[in-house]
Fold each of these.
Amino acid sequence: MITLKDKILSKVTKPTRYTGGELNAVIKDPKTVDIRFGFCFPDVYEIAMSHLGLKIIYHTLNTRPDTYCERVFAPWDDMEQEMRKYDMPLFALETGDAVTHFDMLGFTLQYELSYSNIVNMLDLAKIPVLAAERSEEYPIIYGGGPCAYNAEPIADIFDFFMLGEGEEQVHETMDVLKEWKKEGKKSKKELLERLVKIDGIYVPSFYDVEYTEQGTVKTITPNNPNAPKTILKRVVKDFDATYAPDTIIVPFGEVVHDRVMLEVMRGCMRGCRFCQAGYIYRPLRERKPETLLSLADDLLSKSGFDEISLSSLSTSDFTGLPCLTDGLLKITEEKKIGLSLPSLRIDNFSLELMEKVQKVRKSGITFAPEAGTQRLRDVINKNITEENILQSTALLFAGGWTNVKLYFMIGLPTETDTDVCGIAELAGRVLDVYFEIPKEERAKNINITVSTSSFVPKPFTAFQWVGMNSREEIIRKQKLIKDSIPSKRIRYTYHDNKTSYLEGVFSRGDRRLCKSIIKAVELGCKFDGWGEFFDFDKWMQAFDQTGIDPDFYTARERSYDEVLPWDHIDVGVTKEFLMNENEKAKAESTTPHCRLECSKCGAHRFKTGVCTERRGADNG
Amino acid sequence: MAKYIVKYGRDDRVKFISHLDFVRCFHRAVRRSALNFEFSQGFNPHPVMTIAQPLPVCVTSESEYMKVGFVTDMSDNEIKDELNRRMPPGFTVYAVRRVEGKEIDLTKINMAEYITEIECESPCDIEKLLNEKELVVPKKTKSGIRDSDIRPHIFELEKLGFTDGVMTVRMTVSCGSTYNLKPETVVSAAEKYIDGFSATFCTSHRKSMLIDKKEIM
């Protein structure tokens, strides 16, 4: 039988983005469940299906007989056009049903540049965009993930946010939602009053924001007796015992991370001052190697993937790494499975480990010195030395690797032209290291790539107060590097400054930006993370038409006594600690990592992970 | 190590999978199974596997073939059952047969039978179409789109019915590496040669693939 879906799907690229039915996708009869839930990822299938959080929430929710969690992704432009032409609303992949009247939609907020897609998806779903305009017949919509910590620019769109780790929260939320639905979905406000009692749930409509004459936030005040003054993020206490799916969906088409991902750790102990992930996921917690090996075995045998990768913020800091890799290599060698170890640090980098892992092909390796001079690396607390970098690359070149990528940021606080040129100079010294190796001992065709992105100050980091470099300044610095690269064997690539600028606006934005986002979508903005769609001029037009000066959010240095739009959110790390870190940055003074010494960031409140480990220099 | 011919098919649920994606999908199914691929020799070993004829996107089938090397003690039937357990829903393996040498040469496939549903306001006069001496239509070849006379490549064409604006036909046409005729090309010829006939959409099901008019297995 010819169906409308057949007709539409025959016309679009990569139709398996929209068909569902992949191996291990969960099939349930929607009639048998109490809650229809849509896990929404505001980007295209290949990105969404590479996201670890989706896999966790999807499978943990589907262990509940009362809930059917389906996947809902942003259709690519060709599909969107067909859907609009045939008036087909946004649908869930598993059943193909429209999500317009699902009970709940949960959006994952991974990056600021996906905000326009959220608005566009709601529009496609025929759901009113603003929370205040959605009555009980529409889904309750929440957001989670890293951007939820300062989701103020999209606060008016969401009914609530889940702060922190969702493994337990989602279940508590479903329990409350199920009750409320049983009682006849009386009032949304009443539901939110019940939900706000769950730890880590933030209901933005329960807070009033007032602004000063200068345009900064004056006060953030609860307007509902149930709303706490500050909302503390949620942390799973026993990470080793925390739910991890033992099965994953196997996409038909190729996705970005087409492999099994094994989450070995959560959090990071390093404390790089620019890094939001390093602060918001504290404290560092590890899974036991035996837990991971058993998971790996299940995931591989149930999926048939031929690659497995370790996922964490800094894999080399995993105490069980030797034991885990030995165990994994037993599995991977026998089954001809590739093992990849991203996020290795340059300082305790182990060539032996790399040799073991990359037996056949010596593909490229990326190092992230982040800054070109020791002074600036101390400012950002990167805690690696030039000697570390040169020693590691020497080992690499001697071991036969020839593709080395060096990743840096430009526009960091206190950065001078000396630091910027230092990037090119460091790359030059890495090349010298290669030439110092006798010709017969080194591989041919050295290839060094220097890559820079522009620093975007983020909330809940030591640099949340600093001004961001203007686009002109970034362009000048990019040119400076280009002109200082000492050899043709070093390639220089850099990240577009316009998208970074927009990211800068939203990362430290407030509620007044919501109207700009909605306006931008009206003007046609979507998929802002994609070069083929990103339209900077339209965004500037949207800001202009909604009376927003985007520079107010990016360029301005904040004073410590300014109320920040996210001051009612508590990630565990205290504002005092971050201020102190910012001051230490100015003084070019470093802070030791958590295993060397506790610097009293505040995360010890969660009483878990590295905060409860025995400390000492020998643990470093 | 032994070579097997696998006869399989797919239904509507998985008909949008491209040829290359199917190959990867099958590789993964075997990785999940108790079977082991025979790997090619060389620097970059890959499973020994040849698919007779790529199945176009949006086409379902009950008659696909591949030749594949397995290292296993299982019987033909056990392999069939194991593959059916491991393939994603929507695929069916109908038969597996261990073969020696060129006992079955899948490259000799030269004919396929399709059931095609054509969305159209009124049905087309099949007899009139078949009475044409030549049916010259643009056809995709390796060297771009070229005009080709497809009439000699239509062996059978019959109308099975017409209901609710959908005409169903059965056709047997050339298939394989020498000349491959797709059902939609036949439909485009009907649009060109039969006055007033216009199709807005068509979808096909491959019913069989034949070597010299004979079923392969």
Amino acid sequence: MAILKKQSKVSDEIPSASMADIAFLLLIFFLVTTVFPKDRGLPIVLPEEQEEVEISQRNILHININPDGSVGVRRGDSQNESFHRPHQIQQVWRQEVAQNPNLIAGVRTHPDAPHRFMIQVLDALQMANAERISLQMGEG
Amino acid sequence: MSLKGGGLERKSKASDQIPSSSLADIAFLLLIFFMVTTVFRTEADRPIEWPEAEATQQIDETRDNIMYIWVERDGDIWINDRLVAMDQVADLVAPRWVESGRRLRISLRADAEAPYRYIDAVQREIQRAGAIYVVFATDLERRMQRERR
């Protein structure tokens, strides 16, 4: 009886042919599960509690947001209120701040006004580089 | 004068196949990119209509230092997948504010149509908790859309 010697065919190397397949599999897994964070918005710094500063009416621009989206603008030392659309505030602010660089925007929103209008006004103010903005709620 | 270099015709050596030896490298590179950038969802999004703003900017703070407060159209407040009563908001914000070393950013994700009274109430709660940095979450508005409006 002839003795057949079996030669070992097991390679001592890690098979690398399927490496790309494994990489692609993992790649597709991460592609599908990735959610890019949507952490964007309009930043604002709130005053600390009980931090109330008395400001001269001369340096305040009252911006009143009504429930229908009309925006009343009135200088602190005047009685005349002019009405605008929210995105026109950018123009108004630029004109007013050119006359008085110490101006503070006092945004007073009606409790029933949608959040959207306040955001539009805040957006307009930030686009016009307003830095001193105070957010308040008006009387209902 | 011969242009063909003395009659010797050069054979093109360029292969007509896409080189595949670097395929695995490319795959791994992309893989590593996605592994590094992936953030697994920690809380579910609430169904809100995002307000839009042109001045929208990225929050420059790490994800650990951002807290999300959802305000729905009917005034419901959601924090960390839980419905929260308005007067409990401050109790949830205060420990996070201290933990973050006074760096906490609060992303206020309010529905565009939510009445302002709820937004104001949440702001008061945030102030009561001592936190001061608030970001009104918005979607970036393209100028084109604005001109059409």
